[in-house]
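PROTEIN DESIGN WORKSHEET
SECTION A - STRUCTURE
LENGTH: 397
TOKENS:
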């Protein structure tokens, strides 16, 4: 008996040592926001409970799950998740509930973010609905003056190895999800919903970040579904439904004279329904050292989209105080392949490129865009490239 017990004991130790040697054995600590004072009643502000749970999680070596059970949680101000001093190997924020913003838009509006993650690594946000209740701020903006800019619902900064999966984001005051100076980020199965007329409610904004994947997302918003800012490298977008909204945009670029380029962007299997644009690259008419290089638009369906394919190097909304220079952004090596559907305007393909730096190596193939069952048109200036096979409308090269 004693022999067999100690045998089992030693056997377990040996297994544990072997498994941790191969990195397969890790303890997992479970935390629950309710034990940090969060109240799933939609009334008591649970912001502090979230940051307290995070601090505790950070102090745990190994893996930690922060559970947010079903229910509605009022989160009345910015929650900062900071990772610089975290000891944990991995933190999973598992949300089964709905997080709701405060009724008074000024409380969130004066903050830059609602949920901000800075310097975090190996973090997963799994599930959850984030309802920022942005509409009162939008009506303030529609009526005029003295409105705060608003908070981005979820922002990741200086972070790596992050997964955002199964999240629903509703009615953000400003951007829904923003990624700044990050690497290795996966955004999957998210739903983003805001009305067509809600200002600056971009779905996903990415900049200065490398190795980003966005997969299977449904984005309905009042601004860009996905906006791809300077310094975005190795971005893969696969399986996106967009609309209402302004489409998928690389840009705006040339905001600054010194600016990082955008390279290696692939957008596969996108569906655009009644959006203002489909696949767009835009830059201000300003000198800049930025560039766009190796972009692949592969497979898109356009349903009544105002500008299905657009390169606009004279971007200046409202035409007020435009820089009026030749855009310095060099756009090179862009493929448009397998793009079908309907345009809501006669000009389905528009490329208005910089005179100083014409767009080069633009390739089009398997394109069929129509205008109310009629032929559509192209409008191209300062573009060179080639077309292969069916390209309707054609006329750019
Ligand atoms: C992040 O997770 C990976 C894979 O699970 C692991 O190898 C790595 O050590 C973790 N990084 C840190 C800083 O804990
Ligand atoms: C895509 O995401 C939705 C949630 O937005 C999910 O219900 C669906 O199962 C996902 N599809 C795939 C193929 O993963
Ligand atoms: C972009 O892709 C090219 C060609 O595959 C590769 O050489 C380059 O290193 C990539 N850029 C980055 C920043 O990884
Ligand atoms: C297409 O969209 C325009 C507005 O952009 C709208 O006026 C028109 O009715 C739509 N047509 C169809 C067929 O949906
Ligand atoms: C282009 O698409 C239209 C509308 O879907 C279709 O009627 C037409 O046959 C297509 N043209 C070609 C050459 O495939
Ligand atoms: C750019 O386009 C303009 C307008 O079509 C044309 O006058 C000019 O010659 C073009 N410049 C170059 C460098 O192709």
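SECTION B - SEQUENCE
RESIDUE ASSIGNMENT:
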């Amino acid at each position: 008996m004693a022999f067999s017990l100690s045998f089992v004991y030693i056997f377990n130790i040996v297994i544990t040592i072997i498994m941790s040697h191969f990195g397969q054995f890790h303890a997992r600590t479970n935390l629950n926001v309710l034990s940090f004072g969060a109240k799933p009643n939609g009334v008591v502000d649970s912001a502090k409970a979230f940051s307290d749970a995070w601090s505790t999680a950070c102090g745990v070596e190994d893996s930690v799950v922060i559970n947010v059970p079903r229910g509605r949680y009022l989160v009345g101000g910015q929650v900062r998740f900071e990772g610089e001093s975290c000891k944990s190997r991995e933190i999973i924020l598992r949300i089964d509930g709905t997080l709701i913003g405060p009724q008074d838009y000024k409380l969130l509006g004066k903050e830059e973010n609602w949920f901000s993650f800075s310097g975090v690594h190996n973090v997963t946000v799994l599930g959850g609905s984030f309802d920022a209740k942005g509409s009162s701020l939008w009506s303030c903006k529609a009526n005029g003056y003295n409105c705060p800019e608003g908070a981005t619902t979820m922002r990741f900064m200086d972070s790596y190895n992050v997964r955002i999966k199964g999240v629903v984001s509703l009615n953000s005051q400003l951007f829904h999800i923003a990624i700044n100076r990050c690497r290795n980020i996966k955004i999957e199965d998210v739903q983003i919903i805001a009305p067509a007329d809600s200002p600056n409610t971009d779905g996903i904004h990415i900049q200065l970040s490398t190795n980003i994947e966005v997969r299977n997302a449904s984005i309905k918003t009042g601004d860009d579904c996905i906006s791809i800012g300077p310094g975005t490298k190795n971005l893969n977008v696969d399986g996106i439904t967009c609309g209402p909204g302004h489409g998928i945009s690389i840009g705006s670029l040339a905001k600054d004279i010194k600016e990082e380029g955008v390279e290696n962007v692939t957008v596969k299997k996108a569906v655009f329904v009644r959006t203002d644009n489909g696949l767009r690259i835009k830059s201000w008419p300003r000198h800049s050292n930025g560039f766009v290089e190796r972009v692949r638009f592969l497979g898109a369906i356009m349903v009544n989209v105002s500008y299905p394919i657009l390169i606009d190097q004279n971007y200046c909304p409202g035409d007020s105080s435009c820089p009026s220079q030749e855009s310095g952004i060099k756009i090179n090596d862009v493929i448009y392949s397998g793009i079908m559907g309907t345009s809501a305007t006669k000009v389905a393909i528009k490329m208005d490129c910089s005179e100083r730096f014409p767009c080069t190596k633009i390739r089009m193939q398997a394109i069929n865009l129509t205008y109310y069952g009629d032929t559509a048109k192209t409008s191209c200036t300062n573009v060179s490239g080639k077309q292969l096979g069916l390209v309707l409308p054609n006329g750019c090269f």
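SECTION C - NOTES
Confidence is low (pLDDT under 50) at residues 1-21.
The longest helix spans residues 2-21.
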